[in-house]
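Ticket opened by: R.M.
Priority: normal
Category: complex prediction / small molecule

The reporter submitted a protein together with zinc ion and asked that the result be attached to this ticket for the collaborator who will pick it up next week. Submitted input follows.
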Amino acid sequence: MKLPTKKAIVLLSGGLDSTTILYYALSKGYKCNCIIFDYGQKHKKEINSAIKIAKLANVKYSLIKITLPWSKDVLTNKNKKVPIHKRLPRTVPPTYVLGRNTLFLSYALSFAQSINANNIFIGVNAVDFSNYPDCTPEFIKAYNNVLKSLKTKIIIQAPLLKLNKAQIIKLGTKLNVAYKNTWTCYNGFDKPCMQCDSCKLRAKGFKEAKIDDPTIIK
Ligand SMILES: [Zn+2]
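Result attached by the on-call engineer:
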């Protein structure tokens, strides 16, 4: 008997975590449909990376534009600069985009229902992270309860949730993720700035995994 195709929606940002998640879902036999969001980021580096990654992985993708005219965060507000922290913030940092993952998952839910997909993959993790409130186990559990209350069979899968950055990189390396195509930096310069929280977390992960980051030219 032929098993039905497992369909999945993958939220793909073009960064390290979401790219690992795409490769993970593919390795588990899911037919993946990616959603790439343009939510008004000041630079297009990560969106361009996401499109390249989806094309190379030979999966379908939709580019969805969201407007957030009330944005206060430093990633979308053109008048604000990405801060440089000595240590990772313990409170919610100014790079947090208000409601971002809630919005993304709501789009994913709607898309999943339209194509009868029962799985939504999201690359959140709550170990080496920027202290965003929508990247926690509590948030994923609560959103899964929303999906249940809607009487859907859709579940959110977040297998990176409890992994640290080095474990994620090791997993991705086993899955042959082409990390050279990912863009992690909050800034959109020619090269990663190596000073923002996101660059620092990535560098820490590669160092602990004892793997060279292919985006860093020594
Ligand atoms: Zn950076």
